[in-house]
Amino acid sequence: MANDTSSSDNQLVLSPFFEKLNNLQISRRALPTLPEEGTIAQARKSLLKFLEAEGHDGWDEHLTSDIAPALNAGSLSPNYYGFVTGGCTIPALFGDMLASVYDQNVQVHLPNQTIATDVEACALNMLLDLFRFDRDVWGQSSTFTTGATASNVLGLAMGREWVLRRKAEERGSHLLSVAEHGIHEVMADIGLRKFQIVSTWPHSSIAKAASIIGMGRANLISVQGTLEPGGFTMRIDFNRLEAEAQVDNVATILVISAGEVNTGRFATNGLEDMKRLRAICDRYGIWIHVDGAFGLFGRLLSDEAEFGEIVRGCQGLELADSITGDGHKLLNVPYDCGFYFCRHKGIPEEVFRNGNAVYLTSAASEDTRPSPLNIGIENSRRFRALPVYATLLAYGRGGYLDMLQRQIRLARKVVADLWDSEVYHVLSDATSKTEALERTFMVVLFSARDDNLNADLVRRINATRKIYVSGTSWEGRSAARIAIANWNVDVDKDHKIIQSVLNEVAER
Q: Which residues form a coiled coil (predicted)?
């Protein structure tokens, strides 16, 4: 292929490459979670250091023989428990390959040229069905993003627009839009001195989003309450929230964590909590944004006898103004994929519409949906909807419920082992084993009792290459975190693997 770029030699002949890919798909359970250090070193040496004048015919062999073996099995292995990393279902993988082959830019509605935006609308509606949200309320202002981080930027940007517009209307200002006039001019005109974000244990991407849209990381304020006996979460302190809402000349957005990344905890506990939050926020003109990167999937559950704590943590989220989720976590579609739901029609277009770029307008049709480029950050957008559509089509609600139940049950088996262990310690506020199990979602936080072992615990576990865990900290001490998110979980088989590794590390 070297220098020849003629069309005759560049026909779309994919079968040889699919065969190479298939050869890489050895038994997922035979894959080590991490490559050997020597393999990484060898692959690094093989990298082309400079662009050469002539191309290489063996580029595909280089990718499969040198590069691929030096990649971790984050999405391939069901035993990779780091970073809340989902896998990739077979239908999602097939959808993603088609998305790459056809390479659609899903930006405007072109109904007579491509079905891409129709597929995106269907996929978003299927997600709303999965999470039991009303299509009529959420369907018109929802979109796909690169992930929950980008979705959180959308949520805070739209919240900023809505909150300041309401304040401006109350104070009789003619400057109603931050998107149009800028945050400094609007806030000065209506006499506001600060815009704050209140939350409990927000993900770091909330602080990043605050810095991007001009609110500032320093204006992220805690309204974290004390942990109540028998509760599942470090919940919102309603009195602290109301006190912050009453501060003069300050605008506020409330961010609710539905599944805090370090512990899996939820910030609310039942529908009454959300109703009370909604009433406070309506009274003071506060936008409610839910970061549900993976916790949102708890809305699939209904069995309160087994999953009551999680069910209650997800109740009432439909009362929020905006919600984010990650597709590349528990939905198990390829990176990068997030989604964003907003109940306020018109606000997304006010913030993200493209000026007067006539060439980016939709083709004439009866479709009244806003074009994707006018309700999100990107003008150029990958066809992320196709893998989502494919996997939801293949598995339905029942298939995803089964995946989630297996993930939770495996996590609870691990917690049960650790609770009884003389070597390890479950990091939980629970006062009994039963309570600890009830509070476990799909994240397990633990440490070694011995300080010397604990200081090296994560490295020793990951060095086995049989499972992978993330390092974190808890109350100033090092800790390990197991986040079970892969669709291919086998509760009994994976439980034995985890047991074996933890026993091996303890014996050493």
A: none
Do 1 and 16 contact (CB within 8 A), yes or no?
Answer: no
The answer to which of 125-139, 290-304, 308-322, 362-376 has the lowest mean pLDDT is: 362-376
Q: Is the pLDDT of residue 118 over 60?
A: yes
Q: Render pLDDT for 212-235 as a digit per residue (tens, 0 to 9).
A: 999 999 999 999 886 555 433 468
Token reading at 455: 């200081």
Question: How crowded is residue 21: how many other Cβ atoms within 10 Å of its Cβ?
Answer: 14
Tokens (6 digits) for 471:
């390092």
C-alpha–C-alpha distance, residues 318 and 274, integer Å: 9
Q: Which residues contact residue 108 at a Cβ distance below 8 angstroms, ignoring those fewer than 6 apart?
A: 117, 360, 361, 362, 363, 371, 372, 373
Gap between the Cα atoms of 162 and 178, Å rounded:
9
Task: Pull the structure tokens for residue 422.
Answer: 């003389």
Q: Which residues, including other chains, have CB under 8 Å from residue 364's CB and lie 6 or more apart?
A: none
Residue 235 · residue 272 · CB < 8 Å: no
Interatomic CA distance for residues 225 and 361, integer angstroms:
48
From residue 173, alpha-carbon distances to 96, 177, 242 in Å are: 48, 10, 25
Tokens matching residue 48 = 């082309």
Tens-place pLDDT, residues 128-145: 999 999 999 999 899 999
CA 176 – CA 162 distance, rounded (Å): 9
Structure tokens at 256: 């609710």
400-430 pLDDT, tens digit per residue, is 999 999 999 999 999 999 999 999 999 988 8
Q: Are 156 and 323 in contact (CB under 8 A)?
A: no
